[in-house]
Protein 1
Amino acid sequence: MTAQDPMAFATASELSAMLAEGKTCSVELTQYFLERIKANDDHINSVVTLCEEQALASAKAADQRRRDNSHTALTGIPLLHKDIFCTQGIKTTCSSRMLENFVPPYDATVVQKLNEAGTVTLGKTNMDEFAMGSSTETSHFGLTRNPWDTERVPGGSSGGSAAAVAAGFAPLVTGTDTGGSIRQPAALCGITGLKPTYGRVSRLGIVAFASSLDQAGPMTRTVEDAALMLNAMAGHDPMDATSAARDDEDFTAGLSGSIQGLRIGLPKQYFSSDLDPAIASIVRSALDELVAEGAELVEVDLPLTHHGIATYYVIAPAEASANLSRYDGVRFGHRCDDAEDLTDLYLRSRSEGFGAEVQRRILVGTYALSAGFYDAYFKKAQQVRRLISDDFHRAFQDVDVIAGPAAPGVAFKFGEKAADPINMYMEDIYTLSVNLAGLPGMSVQAGFHAGLPVGLQLIGRAFDESTLLRVGHRFQLRTDWHKATPVLNGGAA
Amino acid sequence: MSWEMVMGLEVHLQLATESKIFSGAANRFGAEPNVQACAVDLGMPGMLPVLNEQAVRFAVMFGLGIDAQIGKRSVFDRKNYFYPDLPKGYQISQFFQPIVGEGVFNVPMPDGSVYPIRITRAHLEEDAGKSVHDAFAGQTGIDLNRAGTPLLEIVTEPDFRTAEQAVAYLKALHSLVTYLEISDGNMAEGSMRCDINLSLRPTGSDELGMRTEIKNVNSFRFVERAIEVERLRQQELLEDGDRVTQETRLYDADRNETRSMRSKEVANDYRYFPDPDLLPIEIDDDYIEQIRSNLPELPEAKRLRFGEQYALSSYDAAQLVSSRELANYFERSVAISNEAKLTANWILGDMAAAMNKENLSISEAPVDAEALAGLIQRVADNTLSSKLAKQVFEGLWAGEGSADDIIKSRGLEQVSDTGALEQMIDDVIAANPEQVAQYLAADDNKRKKLIGFFVGQIMKASKGQANPQMVNELLLTKLNNA
């Protein structure tokens, strides 16, 4: 299999056109990608569950829909789901021993909506356990390798999703982003990853990590595909109280518009001396392309940027500590053998079922909520969160989009940061403030440093994904960075 | 030393909503285990709560019913603790900003007075499931049907000094929530569960003593007993120079004692924080006014009205308004008979006794308001003596038709015909010359006793149908002229 393989790296839009023209059918596409995954994923380990039978059945149904002319643009397009989305009848593990054998009796709303659009689910992708991590090293099912350099991490927590897109295993993959978990792996794997505005996409059926921050989004080869996929994923869900009650939008509608006169804000804190100069230079070159399209660059101030990490690492673990209490060995999930009593059942089921990083965050969150510490930690963090949000709001009075790096560096080597949680947490310094403020953010492939992808992050006003997508699409019309593909050679890096 | 008892009550009231507070599962009592629990109630991964508006409406109705502050913005919090019948490992409750704030509840006491209780707050929360300890040997079963049932937790200030006040409060609360139709208030089925916080202090002291909490007492009678035994237990401890341990205690009705459930000395840390899955409840004035304008007449207002409109004693009025059905029954019956006092006496006397005996509520009783009015009309117009009326009532209860039907079929019409009565009196006087002589020789005091003998004989002769008042008058005239 080579990088030139036209089908592997085709976009969903291209495949959709081929389907429409009858040049291929969904069954053929599905078989092709299933075979490609089976042939190439042993070393990458981006896919944890492959569901061949269901996929082929869905593909047949999709082909029928196309014949019946009752299809959407995505009908028949193969897709992978991050293993955090509940899929009816298909194991949903969150890459945890705790849910190793969990088969949900329901679909997440996102899964249901994509099924209704006619996409074909090939399988589920690897991730950091319960989405807690920035490298996919905390998965119970082994680490995922970055297709650009298999000695390096793909980022996380949606590392399996990002690696799968980069490796040409599926044109469309779902991800979730609580503090950068779509954008950072998208940057490290050289793909497009969009975290929509909080509330844009239903959280129902997505295994919760931090409820006030979690948001699902598309991970694709192109911005155009991201817009197509968001069309299918977004929308009000009355079963999710935090889902925004807004009319459906067509995110592809404004894609080809001009960005003439668009004001792009560059937070001075994002381009400080902390940023690797090589990354800074690539991001600046990308911005020059946008200037050439008529955009204007403006410096903006986000003074609390550096408090983002501390704020996030109080709020997210606090919410997680409660969200993960349901895994107690009583009704579902891992249960220890031969519990002596109730306390033993709880202690051993949870100690055996959760990995070290998950346990660390449960402990941190429990501590932050404890009597006597609540005001100093959780309440304070909520207050700072509000101020961070206010900073963005102020900046957006002057600019239309904020731009910067998606991650502080390129993909790092396995083990390089795993032993140092704080260093690992720094991976999300440019992304997690966006979650705290609930804003949409997107990473697009902007160039290479030492042969490894670098992402440009674009941040928008709440519910203004359209502007982000327009800027990103304009960039991809001007540049070819997103067309670069890694060579899969079976792991001999 | 004499001791003063101080109590505050916490009542968990199950709200009679169609579905659960955060899911679409049915909210009913008594189904097979775990058939009324959906994925949300089971705390399955990825499931989310969606607030049931009816629960909010019911909470606001309660708040307005006690003239309390309604929180314009209230927030759901997570109360974190592990227990097998708590599926999510946290209970969704309201800790920081409850939906109902301070209010005052005027409790009618048995002596006709009113005892005001300050309500601290009332908040919405979800019920947990049930642990079933006796169904499987050596194992505990979990029934999650109850998980997610909406609860309103109503907390009072420590305003109670006697068990009687506590019971009166609970009865009044029961009456209020059934008037509002927000709960069936059934204590035995757990729709209304009471926790009692109880402490003693030397009489005259302003400080509160160490308290214990008695959990889940499930009838008015047990509340009274539990308070009494706990009061005695604490008093003994204090008089022996020991201290009361702050703890949760369980009342064992079979042994009539409280015993320690768990110590609260190491306070549970529930790590409350706002639930990020739910938005704050925002309530505007229009919503409150719309609910207020649809409230039924509440027990307190009805009691005052009954006192004035029907000239009833405070006690009778309080008894009649204790349930909405009872009050309606009374008013329907009086509307026909126009005899308020008689009707109250009959409802609170013979009706209540018959209902108690067969354990029926007023709506289940075989005598409806119209039938009772029919009986009362015959009492009022002297067709029936009170003794005969009891027989007619028995006939009504047994379904023998209307009062008039029964009077006819049983031949119970009171004899008020002067001629007939005089004949009977003459016969009795003639048959008892000795007693007549005694009567004539006696003084006024003794005469009063002897007259009873003659009346008894006449009533016997008339099979109880003689009009007693007329018998008395005619008899006196005849004897005095004998």
Protein 2
Amino acid sequence: MTRPTAIQISDVSKRFVIRKEKSLKERVVNFGRSNLHKEDFWALRDVSIDIESGTTVGLIGPNGSGKSTLLKMIGGIVQPTTGSVRLRGRLAALLELGAGFHPDLTGRENVYLNASILGLTRAEIARHFDAIVDFSGIERFIDTQVKFYSSGMYVRLAFAVAIHVDPDILLVDEVLAVGDEPFQRKCLERIRGFQHEGRTIVMVTHSLDQVAEFCDRAVVLEAGRVAADGLPRDALKILRADFEATRQEEITKSQLSEGAARPLAQITGVALRSDDGETGRPTLAVGSGLTVAMQVDATTRLTDWILGVGLTTPMGTTLYQTNTKLMGVPPAPLLGTGRYEFHLADLPLGEGDYAVQASIQLLDGTDVHLVPEAAVFSVRGDGSSLGPLSVPITFAMV
Amino acid sequence: MTDMIEARAAELADQPLRLASPQTGFVSGTLQSVRDIVAHRELLRLLVARELKARYKDSSLGFIWSLIRPLVMLLIYYIALGKFLGAARGIPSFAIFIYAGLTAWTLHSEIVALGTASIVGNSGLIKKVYLPREVFPLSVVGSSLFNFGMQFVILMAATIVAHKIPTGSRWLFFPLSLAVLVVWALAIALLLSAVNVYLRDVGYLVEIALQVFFWASPIVYAWKYVLNEVGGTIYETLYLANPMTLVTMGFQKTFWVRGDGQPYPDRLGLRLGIVLMIGLVLLWLCQRVFARLQANFAQEL
């Protein structure tokens, strides 16, 4: 059965006018020339996204890319300049926890107020009240004014209220990183529960691991436009490459501005070779070794430097990382081209694709060059296990 | 579990797509706005309770403070105007006369002043959650009416003490005046609260305007003095065009039993009725302007 569209965003653009005047006096003084004191800023440009019901979509992108604006638009808080956002079903937004809390009221009064703001009726709140208090874990303080709460307690209560709303569409903005670890786990569990119940979830987050873990789909926004839209894995790859490009740019810029104070060096090539002699994009057997060859070009003299190597999953999670400093083998100062080789023996990797990371750092910690996905290789196993780790395993009845 | 997903999907498939934020025409959106507010009446009640509870939460006298202020004002006007300037000589039951007007005026100024600030004051909520934003000025009306109720009790007590309890048909003026007062105050509060988001100067302007209109209504002086000065001129018409003038006199007509022999404008009831009709049209217009302006609240705050 095809699922109905829960959220339909068609050709949405949003223009913010940045005015530099606010008071009546300034407006009168600048009357007629007021266009000089205006600046247009397009937070979103021609964004079209259709979201099916029951999917979990992650909105990701660098700061200022329009993620939160888009989320607010879905929530009806901000109206699009052109285009339209259409919805099906009841909507709840967890944009800021405890936005409706009044510091002078008690926890109990605030639960009622906040739940009502999120759209629950009085009867529904009364029914869920015990569950809310129970979830928050602050029964003892429920009749205390919330201004005496610690920030953790405040957020716990707010989150407890928010997740007891029964929405068809849930908007989440960076609120999952609250509370201590057990509480966070409880929250994430609850989000999973929401997914199983077929609710549509749209979340804005900077935690890319969360996107990889929870989302069925990820949308990358860049400067108000959709840069990528698809499986989280592909979207994350694009975003990470993007972040890397920005970072590299910054490094180069600071290298240029600092002149000769920092050495200019680059990893110009990374090649893989399996123990069987396969090169290019080798396929390894479980437990075999891999040689990583790197070529470094230093245009200024490179001293006190570190060469690093790492293994990551395609999602970008680091599995293994080391460098010449940790290994206790400092490379000699370099000017011109140098070739180096790491040999990783008996890799205990499970079946799947992996990427090799390469980096140059200085001993004082400054990054010189980093290539997050310098080369890729695959491991082929016998299909007896899942996950990136391979463990010799037996089973017996004892 | 898949059943749940399918069930929800099937349920959603039956619903039409709706716009995320109301974007309706100037006239056609009225019904939508009203329906939206009615759907949030629960929240409105809680917001009123919040305002009342939070206002005097940490003071030991609590609500009594909201009574002390008008009583002190009454005392000041009674002594300074009534005794020193001699206004009490021409006005029987001067205290009840002033208090009837003050009660009306306090309600009016509270709705207008607090209502104007209500949108900016709740910016935290407005930026984060979608609600019909009219609930904020409306909640001010609710909490102000509660305070008004307490003052009303005092006013009644005063008439009992003075052995001049208002009875009979004079009570007709009370609901009529109160309706005019609330409708006009709410209309002004709606308009100004929205404009205040874009122009913060409005808050200061309101303060001054309220001062002017306080003295432009026959609250601490009697209508007959105005009549003596400007009776029959254009100024009399102007003076009577102020809805609060009529509301004040409507209150006096109800509660100021000793003032029965005093002059009142002709057909006060009819005048109040006309002003109420105008007020209702104004309220509708102000709500429509509010609905227009509220589209950009979240980004302007």
